[in-house]
Amino acid sequence: MRKKLILDVDTGTDDAVAIMLAGLHPDLDLVAVSVVNGNVPVENCTDNTLRTLDLISRSDVPVYEGLSHPIVRDDFPTPRATKRDPKVHMAVLPLPPATSTKKALSAPIFLSQAFAEQPGMITLVAVGPLSNLAAAIAIDPKFPENCAELIIMGGAVNKSNITPSAEFNIWADPEAAAQVFRAPFRKITLVPLDATHEALVSREQCEMLRGLGSPASKASADIIEHRINGYEETQPTGTPRTAPVHDAVCVAALVDRDIIETKHVNVVIETLGEYTIGRTVVDHERRTTRVPNCHVAFHAKREPFIAMLSEVFAPVAPDRVKVG
Ligand code: RIB
Ligand code: CA
User: Fold this and answer.
1) CA–CA dist 296, 265 (Å, integer)
2) Which residues pair with 297 in a beta bridge?
3) Burial grade of 54 (CB within 10 A; 0-12, 13-18, 19 or more)
4) In angstroms, what is the span from residue 126 Cα to ligand 2's centroid?
5) Which residue in 26, 133, 221, 304 could disulfide with 210, CB within 3.0 to 4.6 Å?
């Protein structure tokens, strides 16, 4: 039985690779994609998402646009790619213009309805700021328990990217993240920077992907090389000629849970700190009596992650083409 998932994205270069992996993996059933403001303005995230799904011939997957800004703060984030991070993300992905269009329904309403219609059957993989999820909780208090599992790309224990103490997805809407981590989801799995930076992809592996010769393999090679250029210039990973592909690691972990190594601990979100806003406070040393609410990935395996990308993005042999 294929695993059903809905992706919530802020496409985004690594989001695009996650969408392609989710849309092409034979063990996954990508039910829909919801979009949120994040790496770039939400309308650009939507356009990039549509371009990506069209590229892999998955225009059948519906796309729903969501919040254009955080649920509380109106002062940030100015979309990162236009202010801070033009090197890793881009307003318009280098893919053919989209021919498909988004659905009229807003993402939070869609999310609340979709999970209510199939309670406990669909995993939500959230790889952008958590604004749509917080709005869905406000619309339907049963939304959290209707999700089979929530897998989040975000946060950090001993790393950071957008400030010295925070990771972008959580920092971009900390009040939304705080609500999500307080909500009664059946299971929350957090894939933070500490894990995604162990599953780095290299220029040589991009060449390998490009050599596979499919639209997805060539696009992912181009996109990840763009990320490597950006990381080398702005935030070197410590391993030359590499970059993390954060969001795709979450999708890979849904297929093969052994790709990540987790601990069940308490996570709360800092929303008031003058210097620490958006920090995931991960109590992995049991310093408090707060109960564990999240399975945090402290490690991720690079080899099986890369192997999955190359296997799924390889051209489909004619005899394997699924009809209907
Ligand atoms: O900090 C990394 C995360 O922020 C990734 O999801 C990236 O796409 C951006 O959304
Ligand atoms: Ca993202």
Assistant:
1) 7
2) 262
3) middle
4) 8
5) 221
Residue in 8, 11, 14, 231 to alter for ligand 1 test, most ligand atoms within 8 A of Cβ: 14
Pocket of ligand 1 (CB under 6 A): 10, 12, 14-15, 38-39, 127-128, 153, 161, 167-169, 246-247
8 Å CB contact between 279 and 159: no
Are 173 and 130 in contact, with CB atoms under 8 Å apart? Answer: yes
Handedness of CA 86, 91, 97, 102 (dihedral sign): positive
CA of 36 to the centre of ligand 1 (A): 12
Atom of ligand 1 nearest to the CA of 169: 4
Residue 119, burial from CB neighbour count under 10 angstroms (0-12, 13-18, 19+): middle
pLDDT (tens place) for every residue of the chain, 324 residues total? 999 999 999 999 999 999 999 999 999 999 999 999 999 999 999 999 999 999 999 999 999 999 999 999 877 766 555 555 668 888 999 999 999 999 999 999 999 999 999 999 999 999 999 999 999 999 999 999 999 999 999 999 999 999 999 999 999 999 999 999 999 999 999 999 999 999 999 999 999 999 999 999 999 999 999 999 999 998 999 999 999 999 999 999 999 999 999 999 999 999 999 999 999 999 999 999 999 999 999 999 999 999 999 999 999 866 655 443
Phi-psi region of 301 (alpha: psi -120 to 50; beta: other; left: phi over 0): beta
Q: Which residues are 33's β-sheet partners?
A: 7, 63
Beta bridge partners of 8: 34, 126
- Give the integer Cα–Cα distance in Å for 300 and 192: 10
Q: How far is the CA of 88 from the centre of ligand 2 (A)?
A: 11
Q: Which domains does the chain have, with CATH numbers?
A: 3-320 (3.90.245.10)
